Amino acid sequence: MESSEEHRHIVGYGQLAVVLALLLALTGVTVAVSYIDLGFLNVPAALTIATLKAALVLLFFMHLRYEGPIIRYGFITTVMFLAIMIGFTFWDVAFR
Amino acid sequence: MTTAQSYLEHSSPPGRRGWKAWLLTHDHKRLGLMYLWAILFWFVLAVLLGLLMRTELMGAGRTIMGAETYSSMFTLHGVIMIFFFGIPAIPAIFGNFFLPIQLGADDVFFPRLNLLSWYLFMFGGGFAIFSLFFGDGFPDTGWTFYVPFSISSAGNVSLTVTAAFILGMSSMLTGLNFVTTFHRLRHKGMGLMKIPLFTWSLYATAWVQILATPVIAITFVLVVLERLLAIGLFEPDRGGDPLLYQHLFWMYSHPAVYIIILPAMGVISEIIPVFSRKAIFGYKGIVYSSLAIAIAGSLVWAHHMYTSGMSDVSVFVFSLLTFLVAVPSAVKVFSWVSTMYRGSIAMSPPFFLSLCFIYLFTVGGLTGLVLGAAGTDIHVHDTHFVVAHFHFVMLGGTGFAFFAALHYWWPKMFGVLYRNRPAYVGAVAAAVGFVFHFVPMLILGMQGMPRRYYDYLPQYETGNFLAGFGAYLLVFGLLLMLLNLVLSLRGRRTAPANPWGGTTLEWTVPSPPPVENFTATPEIKDFPYDFSEIVANSKK
Amino acid sequence: MMASTSDTTGIRIGMWIFLYSEIILFGGLFVLYAVYLYEYSELFAQGGKELNRIIGSLNTVVLLASSCTVAASITAIQRGKKGQAMACLAVSIFCGLVFVVNKYFEWGAKIHHDIYPNSATLQDGEPGLNIFFGLYYVITGLHGLHVIIGMVLLTTSLVLVHRGRITASRYAVLENSGLYWHLVDLIWIFVFPLFYLVL
């Protein structure tokens, strides 16, 4: 606990560049997909790509891959709470 | 450092004197005391506001105030009791003071952030006072700030919700501090199942504070924006849905109920075993039920909205989920009662107040089932029944637990003993007054008397008179207990390190504790509620 | 940032917890967005077409790049390369500035076309459009505020790196500012498709 700086994983420049390239590619994909009408899949498609991008930022730029269980489970709890906030509101909205 | 130096005499960081030693302190114990005085001020103020309302209602017709004043009164009473007393009281005072000690740490993880939380609390309070005397007058919306009235009301709603926003930040940062402290500063020898139950309950609460508070923050931001810019996000003729405001509001404010009650349950879990001289029954059950309440409490918000025009499916689902919360709450009540069974009971003011808690909280919980069931709720919705129900939980529960905590930890915090007799008299008066106050309100509610009116039909007069009588007795009891405690500071009957025979770490250090909490490495027991040593010593 | 302790993991835990609360803060607005998208899906699509996709895409690229350079600045400081770290931070701050300037022109153009909260066009138009643009202003406004706060944090870090207060052995402030900046990016990753690309 008192260790001033435990050995930390260093993410190399090359790896960061690859992640950025992937993020930019996914941005291109999401813009391209938006021109195609997928019917009711429009929103899920856009959100899936956004989630992929978010995952890349979280795992590599924010080092979530290398963090301990507290930060990881805390994050999962947050996302679940957000899902409940939106999902449970639809018990009302979707059945009016 | 060889001799223990009391935190009251030595500042942290060292060398600060006078007001600086308090206002710039990093010491979690001093911050706890600073919260104590600020919160007591708000509590007494709101109690007196409540008494004025009850006085108005003692006779039919206008007694001492009119409709508008009454509306402002219940708004202020609600806002203060929820945001300035209920939510911060136990975590900010006793949590700040005892969480680090119970974990074997010398302070919270972010001491300066802790000081910032206190300043935010005071700043929010200043803002609230400011909003009363400047601008367009008292807010009159009730503490719920429902749209569309909160957007069109002439009262000074914007400033009041801003004050609540700031208090929310304070509460959220306290939660952040507790979680980090819990994980990073806990004594190395203290495994998860060796942590005192009060600290466990604060940990569960802290997560609710962290995750639910931002929802009310953004909701209040939207209220202010609507008042300033008229966006129309909640206005039906502009495409908005006013029910969504209620969803957002209760997404926080229902979990907030658990922010208020969970630490209170933690206090009771500390006190019951100590005065039963017996290990707590179902330690793990209590730990898991705290976490379960925190989780389940976040799933049930819409049970405040059965009559608001939600879909029937939603009413059904939220009603079902609401009943789930009863399970972990009942686990706790049964554990407390089982702990006392065949224990060696030593009566004392904190224990007596804890017994009051169990009784009143149980009534609150059971009346909650009446409201949680959609069918019966429609009959009593927005009546005095609801008001009585949440006072059983909030005042009968958290309020009595707050006083129990005060009486339990006062000797440790200040190093002085108080007189028992006035404490008992006050506690009995408060409990009897409470029953006289709120049982008639349950009946009035079932008879159909709506809440939030300064006047009523003649047939409700007897009940309201009784409730008013109970209110005076209740307030007498509460103030007597506070007075007795404050006077003990003059009496200077010094308290020993362990006046009650407690087993958690705060009782192993001198009263009042030294600045750095522990002068020697604390010894962590395998089980925090092991009374074998205490019992053996008392038999000698 | 507020702790004098050397336990950097603890400091990061504190920062992450703060970020969780930020996520939920925006989450409240996304609840509104989800419900109104469900109620007014066609009008939301119509509103989305009125937003400038090119500026939106450009801002996405700018933010993603700045996020990458912030991450790179941490790599640099971990390796003890002060100059590289400062350069990376400067690029990030510049990207933030580009984003804010773009946003300024974007909002300005909309306001010029009489589209802003309580404007006559929105008042008299379809209610769904009023909600779409209402949410657009609230969410991008709150996000813009976070961009500005993030720039302040990054600038502070830059100054501290320059003064040698952030070093290879002690960089919690930089790390936490970086986390905040990534959060701003994270929110935008969702705002962009939800407003500019709804279909």
From TrEMBL, chain A:
One of its GO terms (cellular component) is plasma membrane. It is found in: Cell membrane. The chain crosses the membrane at residues 12-36, 42-61, 73-91. The keyword Ribosomal protein does not apply. Coiled coil: none annotated. Keywords: Cell membrane, Membrane, Transmembrane, Transmembrane helix. It comes from the Bacteria. This is Cytochrome c oxidase subunit 4.
UniProtKB/TrEMBL annotation, chain B:
Residues 13-525 form the Cytochrome oxidase subunit I profile domain. GO terms for molecular function: cytochrome-c oxidase activity; heme binding. GO terms for cellular component: membrane. Keywords: Electron transport, Membrane, Respiratory chain, Transmembrane, Transmembrane helix, Transport. The chain crosses the membrane at residues 33-53, 73-101, 113-134, 154-179, 200-225, 245-268, 280-301, 313-331, 351-374, 386-410, 422-445, 465-487. InterPro entries: Cyt_c_oxase-like_su1_dom, Cyt_c_oxase-like_su1_sf, Cyt_C_Oxase_1. SUPFAM superfamilies: Cytochrome c oxidase subunit I-like. Pfam families: COX1. It comes from the Bacteria. One of its GO terms (biological process) is respiratory electron transport chain. This is Cytochrome c oxidase subunit 1.
Automatic annotation (TrEMBL), chain C:
The keyword Transcription does not apply. GO terms for molecular function: cytochrome-c oxidase activity. The keyword Transmembrane applies. Residues 1-199 form the Heme-copper oxidase subunit III family profile domain. One of its GO terms (biological process) is aerobic electron transport chain. It holds the Pfam family COX3. GO terms for cellular component: plasma membrane. This is Cytochrome c oxidase subunit 3. Keywords: Membrane, Transmembrane, Transmembrane helix. It is a multi-pass membrane protein. Belongs to the cytochrome c oxidase subunit 3 family. It is found in: Cell membrane; Membrane. The lineage of its organism: Bacteria, Pseudomonadati, Thermodesulfobacteriota, Desulfobulbia, Desulfobulbales. It comes from the Bacteria.
